Amino acid sequence: MVLMDLSMPEVDGIAATKQIAAEMPSVKVVILTASESDTTLFEAVKAGAQGYLVKNLEADDFFALLDRAANGEPAFTPALARRLLVEFSKPAQKPAAPEADALTDREREVLELMVEGVVSNRKLAKRLDLSENTVKFHVRNILDKLRLHNRAEAVGYALRKKFEA
């Protein structure tokens, strides 16, 4: 189990949770934060968090919820669980068209290299002086943000949009 903070220097807690959920699905991630923001709560759940605990919880409640998470159950206070149910029970809205503006500078850099024909993780990592795992993470984010399924679709998207830095 990982207790994840949302604010970290290299990668934010939502992105780290997404990466852990993708690469190590047996690891349970519980967000521990001072933020009671609906946006971060919903993003954490979508990223794969098993729970979301606010730092002002009483010790007994905190450890009881951690035990639940360890047993594979969701770890949310009743108030947070209610907010999740309200949000996720809303009728689905038609998703907006994906926008390249949603990409970070690094993700744009990865996509630009892919358009140039550099598509293997190893070659991308070498060109960007990153680890292969970091490149995989950026590629996954590009695909998620643009709602695409593979690298070929990402390159096609970039070419159709005349994607440039």
How is this structure best described in words?
The chain is mainly alpha-helical. The protein folds into two domains: 2-88, 3-Layer(aba) Sandwich (Rossmann fold), CATH 3.40.50.2300; 100-160, Arc Repressor Mutant, subunit A (Orthogonal Bundle), CATH 1.10.10.10. It has helices at residues 13-23, 38-47, 59-70, 78-88, 105-115, 121-128, 132-146, 151-160, and strands at residues 2-4, 29-33, 51-54. A three-stranded parallel beta sheet has the order 1-2-3, with helices on both faces. Helix 2 links the parallel strand 2 (29-33) and strand 3. The longest helix has 15 residues, at 132-146. It starts with a strand and ends in a 5-residue tail after the last helix. The mean pLDDT is 87.
Features:
165 residues, mainly alpha, Rossmann fold, Arc Repressor Mutant, subunit A, 2 domains, 8 helices, 3 strands
What would you say about this model in short?
With 165 residues, the protein is mainly alpha-helical.
Topology:
Elements: E1 2-4, H1 13-23, E2 29-33, H2 38-47, E3 51-54, H3 59-70, H4 78-88, H5 105-115, H6 121-128, H7 132-146, H8 151-160
Parallel strand pairs: 1-2, 2-3
Helix pairs in contact: 1-2, 5-7, 5-8, 6-7
The pLDDT mean sits at 87
Classify the secondary structure makeup into a structural class: mainly alpha
Going across the biggest sheet, name each strand in turn: 1-2-3
- Principal-axis shape equals elongated
CATH class of the largest domain, named: Alpha Beta
CATH superfamily (homologous) name of the largest domain: Response regulator
CATH topology of the largest domain: Rossmann fold
Distance between the termini: 39 Å
Strand segment count:
3
In percent terms, what proportion of residues is strand? 5-15%
